[in-house]
From TrEMBL:
PANTHER family: SLR1343 PROTEIN (PTHR38657). Gene3D superfamilies: 1.25.40.80, Deoxyribodipyrimidine photolyase-related, DNA Cyclobutane Dipyrimidine Photolyase, subunit A, domain 3, HUPs. It comes from the Archaea. This is Cryptochrome/photolyase family protein. Pfam families: DPRP.
């Protein structure tokens, strides 16, 4: 019997590694997989370095680890079964749809067996979720309250701590002009990380993103330090500024924990507990910060994982707005005059990260209004972000961001410069005018924003949450303004298609 550890299951605290402390361990680092897509160099480095560090930590514990660096996953299994013919493998269920079956086929064709056990890297098991979910409307807020009750996190008996379930209203402040977010920690590459960078230098050479400087946590100790740093320095302002965008502050007060969480280096419950403990023991952590953070991890992260389970396989192909445009090249090149997009793509190119509001309200919003095929956008999020995995990028991109699947989103997350200017300060340094909709200087978001409900009237007019938007659209149509707006939207798309920024004067 051998415990198979996948690259995003790097924990000794759960699953078969914890349950079978004496068994041999198998890990496979497949280079062809890493080279197959245009993955961000930081992501390749992060995953391979975290795997090698994890291997070394297991060996230091005295566990036998067979670690195969091979071209493909199948080659790694060949090497394993050559050495251990007919071996029985046990693995935690991979989070990606269909991966367990594919894995089983690969193992069985090599004469072995594969036992798939529950994935313990989440707080809510499939069985518990399926007990809770009645098959009707899938709503995050209901699930979140269920999770709070089930876990007792931020609960006083049956009531939420502070009296409210949700302090969303207090999560929409913008920082003062002179605000400086605390520095974020970076983890300098050690010898193991450097050897990974060397090994992948050919694959990473000349790609669209910057291989250096790399500073993501790659070990359990680094990940715990990153958690401690967040809770100590950024948790207090996390809540108030959760929805804000500030020029020159690409992380603001966000946790930067999705990458170590998605690799298994941190567990969701321990990060929730660390935040709640800080709230209980300190005076500088307001309820809207701890509740906001708990809502993201215990609520959204768990929710999208199960929404993915429920929604697949249809979710992967869903496209209810029939959006078919190619992803503009600017998502790779960062070549745009639009200050908010420029900053968000720059963060992705530099470190494979943009914070949630940049992802949703800038990167995804622009793609939605522009009409990008949701699956092209999903592929980009998947490969370009250090925390991108199919189980989490797909529900967030295809459903939340692109309103493509009728799974849990109640209306499209579409916004004009009005929202972006209110929640961020990028417009101050942008050549476009956030208050103008037509004209060469007009913010490109604005014409696209009004073109979107006009172009998708059949799909969206009956949505009662779009009533206000259609009221305004009708006013513009009645006033004879809509034709010019749609013409400007066409110009914006044509320029973007040509790899240029829409013209300014
Ligand atoms: C279009 C789009 C694509 C996304 N793709 C990914 C992805 O590939 N991988 C990924 O981990 N997250 C994804 N997210 C969710 C979220 O934006 C990131 O988890 C978050 O920005 C990570 O940064 P952070 O650790 O600083 O998070 P914070 O903003 O500080 O939040 C704390 C933690 O909450 C969790 N979280 C918050 N929101 C979500 C969410 N909607 N879904 C899942 N977890 C959440 C994360 O684990 C995160 O670390 C996406 C969101 C959008 C809108
Ligand atoms: S004016 Fe428009 S493009 Fe420029 S920063 Fe503001 S919202 Fe973004």
């Amino acid at each position: 019997m051998t415990v198979l550890v996948l690259g995003d299951q790097l924990t000794r605290r759960a699953g078969p590694l914890a349950a079978r402390p004496d068994e041999r361990v198998l890990m496979i680092e497949a280079r062809a997989f890493a080279a197959r897509h245009a993955y961000h160099p930081h992501k390749r480095t992060l995953v391979a370095s975290a795997m090698r560090h994890f291997r070394d930590a297991l060996r230091e514990d005295g566990r036998p680890v067979d670690y195969h660096e091979t071209a493909t996953f199948g080659d790694g299994l060949d090497a394993h079964f050559d050495a251990h013919p007919g071996d029985d493998l046990v693995v935690m269920r991979p989070a990606s749809y269909g991966a367990a079956d594919r894995l089983r086929d690969l193992v069985e064709t090599r004469g072995g067996t594969l036992r798939v056990v529950e994935n313990e890297l989440f707080c809510c098991s499939p069985a518990d979720f399926d007990d809770w979910y009645d098959g009707g409307a899938l709503r995050h807020e209901d699930f979140y309250r269920y999770m709070r009750r089930e876990t007792g996190v931020l609960m006083e008996g049956d009531e939420p701590v502070g009296g409210e379930w949700n302090y969303d209203e207090a999560n929409r402040e913008t920082p003062p002009d002179d605000y400086e977010a605390p520095d974020v920690p970076t983890f300098d590459p050690d010898a193991t990380t450097r050897s990974v960078q060397d090994d992948y230098a050919d694959v990473n050479a000349g790609t669209w993103a910057d291989p250096e400087p790399f500073g993501w946590p790659v070990t359990r100790a680094d990940a715990l330090a990153a958690l401690d740093d967040f809770v100590t320095h950024r948790l207090p302002d996390f809540g108030p500024y959760e929805d804000a965008m500030v020029e020159g502050e690409p992380m603001l007060d966000h946790a930067l924990l999705s990458a170590p969480l998605n690799l298994g280096l941190l567990g969701p419950r321990e990060v929730v507990d660390a935040a709640v403990e800080a709230y209980d023991e300190r005076d500088d952590v307001p309820i809207e910060s701890v509740e906001g953070f708990v809502r993201q991890v215990l609520g959204w992260r768990e929710f999208v994982r199960h929404a993915y389970r429920v929604g697949m396989p249809d979710l992967a192909d869903a496209n209810r707005l029939d959006a078919t445009r190619d992803l503009p090249d600017l998502y790779w090149s960062g070549d745009t005059d639009m200050a908010c997009l420029d900053a968000a793509v720059a963060g992705v190119r530099q470190r494979g990260y943009a914070h949630h509001i940049q992802r949703l309200m800038v990167l995804s919003n622009f793609a939605l209004l522009y009409g990008v095929d949701p699956h092209e956008l999903n592929r980009w999020f998947h490969v370009a972000f250090v925390d991108g995995y199919h189980w989490v990028s797909t529900p967030n991109t295809v459903e939340m961001g692109q309103y493509a699947a009728d799974l849990f989103a109640t209306k499209p997350y579409a916004a004009s410069a009005n929202y972006l200017d209110r929640m961020g300060d990028y417009c101050d340094g942008c050549p476009y005018d956030p208050d103008a909709t037509v004209g060469a200087d007009a913010c490109p978001f604005n014409a696209l924003y009004w073109d979107f409900p006009a172009a998708n009237e059949d799909a969206l007019r009956s949505n009662h949450r779009m009533g206000l938007v259609y009221g305004h659209l009708d006013d513009k149509r009645d006033a004879g303004d809509l034709a010019a707006i749609r013409e400007r939207a066409t110009d914006v798309r044509a320029a973007t298609d040509d790899g240029e920024s829409p013209r300014t004067e």
